[in-house]
Automatic annotation (TrEMBL):
Keywords: Cell membrane, Disulfide bond, Ion channel, Ion transport, Membrane, Sodium, Sodium channel, Sodium transport, Transmembrane, Transmembrane helix, Transport. It is a multi-pass membrane protein. This is SCNNG protein. PROSITE patterns: ASC (PS01206). GO terms for molecular function: ligand-gated sodium channel activity.
Length: 653
């Protein structure tokens, strides 16, 4: 049967009604409109499904899909700042690194003897008191001038002590008398003799100059370590007072240290070395420092094409108490790096040929937010005292030196001077030794904050070293080689060289493979957005337009409805309050808005049948009665020029 004309007209009008979703009066109606019109299928199935079980299943599936999307997107965000490591190997001509060489003994003992005479005398007295050494039986190879006792008072302030069975009773080597010692005990060795051992413990006491009762006892399991540490403590105090010019003249010159030199098969000399003065190792010499703007390179690997030098060590002029080993110390580093030879230097034996093969590696890490490294060190709040490119060691040493100046009022001798500071010595800073040891203890325990402030450099170069040693010179060639080397030395020495005074060093590339280790972002922005789109499409059949739709409905429209309701409540409360205060009855204007003035209909769209049906009726007003029809308005020719086709069908039917 045919459809009634009235239903067809109603259906046609409903199809032409404007969309009322974003202007829905309540959140429930807004959500229903969203579910019916959204591009995501799950929400629509929740509304149109019949039956509670089927609707519950769709709710469960939709919520599960949303949970999976949130979980997967969170994983994508967490992995966005991860990095992968790639290793690239290149075969090419390589720049040769800088090679810094130092004699283990910093200064010629014969040149510094007058400054150290008092310290050496007190050291010999301690050896005689504690171990029964006498001048005749002592293995010290030269006598020390007695001189004037100008420093006796200073050495009595910090004497060597012998502790008996870990008790607080100590023997002072000046008088041999026992006295009670109070203070905290700090063991400077990892292996400490137990209290049941019959051996005595050697150490020294440091007290606060401002508070004599605040003392620290530093003990050692070995007398050798105790004497050396005590000697170095006073040695730094003395060296800090000697002008730099005198120390440079008292150390080894390039002619003293270098006997022969070859690089890449060609002869070289002292002009290829740059001198710099190290506080702990005296004059050191750097080959290929790049100061003249030229950096040497090599195109062939192997020991024949690297650096070959013969070093003159001169063991006879060593300080017997300061150093107990013989040889040289070297470090391979970049031209822009400071050579921390005291930390990572490699020792070279005498009477031996030491071959050091190198592998070159360049590394680069990603900076923030991928890792906590620094590009140039400018973002680190620590002043660089070394005038070299940033490194973690430079930062740590500079940080400690700054803390030393702030806490103790002077700078530690082994590190560069900050601006306006001077090195510590007992005459000007009587409390510096106690302050230094206390501060260094905090530094080791990471209580100064330096380890937290300083960061690794993002890019650095590294030369991995492989060391091998052979006896040199051999027994059959020793005689003629030493004669020739003595002749090469010329009139600079008046004796035949001994093989224990010489060291042969070879530094070379084992191969020309440059390894480049770099970090690369695992995810880029394009990949991240693609992964997001894949997750949204897989679980919710959703796109970017769908995401914008969700933001519009769930945030903008929902917030608008809530704010509109709150505004209406606040306005109604205010009007009621004013009416109660004035005592006037409710006015017609205060009643709820009707018709087109109703907030539901305040919209850019025309009112619809649905909104008209939802208009509230005025309070205390009778229902409107239907007025009698005005038959003149029923004339169809005034509204329609011709009969509608629907009515024609109905008439024919």
């Amino acid at each position: 049967g045919a459809v009634a004309p009235g239903k067809k007209i109603t259906a046609r009008i409903k199809r032409t009604l404007p969309v009322r979703g974003p202007q829905a009066p309540t959140l429930s109606e807004l959500m229903r409109w969203y579910c019916l019109n959204t591009n995501t299928h799950g929400c629509r199935r929740i509304v149109v499904s019949r039956g509670r079980l089927r609707r519950f299943i769709w709710i469960l599936l939709t919520l599960s899909a949303v949970g999976l999307i949130l979980w997967q997107c969170a994983e994508l965000l967490l992995n966005y700042y991860s990095a992968s490591v790639s290793v690239t190997v290149q075969f090419q001509k390589l720049p040769f690194p800088a090679v810094t060489i130092c004699n283990i003994n910093p200064y010629k003992y014969s040149s510094m003897k007058e400054y150290l005479s008092e310290l050496d005398k007190e050291t010999k007295k301690a050896l005689e008191t504690f171990y029964g050494f006498s001048e005749g039986k002592s293995k010290v190879r030269r006598s020390v001038d007695e001189g004037n006792s100008t420093g006796s008072e200073f050495f009595r302030q910090i004497p060597l002590l012998k502790f008996e069975d870990f008790s607080k009773t100590a023997t002072v080597f000046y008088s041999g008398q026992k006295r009670k010692i109070e203070g905290s005990v700090f063991h400077k060795d990892s292996s400490i003799v137990n209290s049941g051992d019959s051996n005595d413990i050697i150490g020294f006491q440091l007290c606060d100059a401002n508070n004599s009762s605040d003392c620290a006892l530093y003990t050692f399991s070995s007398g050798v370590n105790a004497i050396q540490e005590w000697y170095k403590l006073h040695y730094m105090n003395i060296m800090a007072q000697i002008p730099l010019e005198i120390k440079e003249k008292s150390s080894y010159s390039a002619d003293d240290l270098l006997l022969t030199c070859f690089f890449d098969g060609l002869s070289c000399d002292k002009r290829h070395f740059t001198r710099f003065h190290h506080p702990l190792y005296g004059n050191c010499y750097t080959f290929n420092s790049g100061e003249n703007g030229t950096i040497l390179s090599t195109s062939t690997g192997g020991s024949e094409y690297g650096l070959q030098v013969v070093l003159y060590i001169d063991e006879a002029d060593y300080n017997p108490f300061l150093v107990t080993s013989t040889g040289a110390k070297i470090i391979v580093h970049d031209q822009n790096e400071y050579p921390f030879i005291e930390d990572i230097g490699t020792e070279i034996e005498t009477a031996a040929a030491t071959s050091i093969g190198m592998h070159f590696t360049r590394s680069r890490k990603l900076s923030k937010p991928y890792s906590d490294c620094t590009e140039t060190g400018d973002d680190i709040p620590v002043e660089n005292l070394y005038n070299k490119s940033y490194s973690l060691q430079i930062c740590l040493h500079s940080c400690f030196q700054k803390a030393m100046v702030d806490s103790c009022g002077c700078a530690q001798y082994a590190q560069p001077l900050p601006a306006g500071a001077e090195y510590c010595n007992y005459k000007k800073n009587p409390n510096w030794m106690y302050c230094y040891y206390r501060l260094h203890e905090k530094f080791v325990k990471e209580q100064l904050g330096c380890q937290q402030i300083c960061k690794d450099a993002c890019s650095f170069k590294e030369w991995a070293l492989t060391t091998s040693i052979a006896q040199w010179p051999s027994a059959v060639s020793e005689d003629w080689m030493l004669r020739v080397l003595s002749w090469d030395k010329g009139q600079k020495i008046n004796k035949k060289l001994n093989k224990t005074d010489l060291a042969n060093l070879m530094v070379f590339y084992k191969d020309l493979n440059e390894r480049f280790i770099s970090e690369n972002p695992t995810n880029t922005l394009v990949i991240l957005l693609s992964n997001f789109g894949g997750q949204l499409g897989l679980w919710m059949s959703c796109s970017v337009v769908c995401v914008i739709e969700i933001i519009e409905v769930f945030f903008i429209d929902s917030l608008s409805i809530i704010m509109r309701h709150q505004w209406q409540k606040a306005k109604k409360w205010w009007n009621d309050r004013k009416r109660d205060q004035s005592g006037k009855p409710a006015q017609a204007g205060d009643l709820e808005r009707q018709g087109h003035n109703n907030p539901v209909c305040i919209d850019e769209d025309l009112p619809t049948f649905n909104t008209a049906l939802r208009l509230p009726l005025p309070q205390d007003s009778p229902l409107p009665r239907t007025p009698p029809p005005n038959y003149s308005t029923l004339r169809l020719e005034s509204a329609f020029t011709e009969q509608l086709p629907d009515t024609l069908e109905a008439g024919q039917h």
